[in-house]
Design a protein that fits this description.
Strand content: under 5%
Number of strands: 0
CATH topology of the largest domain: TorD-like
CATH architecture of the largest domain: Orthogonal Bundle
Shape: globular
Number of helices: 16
Radius of gyration: 21 Å
Length: 326
Amino acid sequence: MTSRAALAAARSHLYVLFGRLFRHGVTPDLLSDLRELPELAAHLADPFDADAAAAAHYRLLHFEVFPHESIFLHPDSLLGGEIAAAVHDFYQQAGFAPPADALPDHLGLELALLSFLTGAEAAAANDAPVWQDWQRHFLDQHLLRWLPALVQAMGRQGHPFYTTLADLTLELALDHRAALGNDLPAAAPVFCLPPPPDLLADAKTGLAEIADYLLTPAFSGIYLSRDEIRRLAQAQGLPSGFGHRRRMLADLLTTASVYDGLDRLLAALQADLAGRQQDLAALATAHPGLAPLLRPWQQQMAHTRQVLERLLAALPTLSPLAIARP
């Protein structure tokens, strides 16, 4: 096996391993592979408890962070739709048959697709460049557009194993993309997130609409989980509520407004955004080729900070039921 084929085979192995971890969590059959990766092995429980591992995976990736491209890139932050359909079309064109028990834009399946493509490259005698083109296309037009935002979201959930897994997945994808050559600006269509709505220009905008905006990553540039909303509430001495994320955040904003704590809550959100912006700036510095795909996220975060500043300035005119431009 040539060095090129061996490297492609190694990438294929890591992609399928990471994909299985994101889809199913740590299972007994993966322990031997994980112990070969010291970064992940350091966060494995000893002795291993399969039930506890399954529960941790379910809570994190079925309840807190939803690892789907559509959740991060769709202007309604809804599962499926045209984004999932575009990923499915790519699979068909590339000859990849994903399992039918998950939506096609789940991170685990996107990593399985890259395992398939790199595995095909490893086995190819003369047409390796064809498989590399498929890899470049998918990384540029799908995975690398949303993976940094997901990695940032995972890092805020307080789970060392999955935080490390997300970091390693991004490192793998970035190293892979760099090895394929061609700068991202030249190789990929211009990546833009949808223009955010001008919420404060609409007199009908209320706290629920503000919550919807903040919970739509394609607009706000951030992902807020239930646990993060709960921590925000606890830090302000407010009840965290229950239910889905939109209900929790809308209730928190309303409660903060009723108890004259909205200014502190908005300031806490601003501080959180500032930290996220610093993280992305550091990532862009470490990986200059990724900058064009990070810039739209940075722009949305900057806009969200402006929205929060305008809300703070408008506080004298706000009520629990309506937020309008003063």
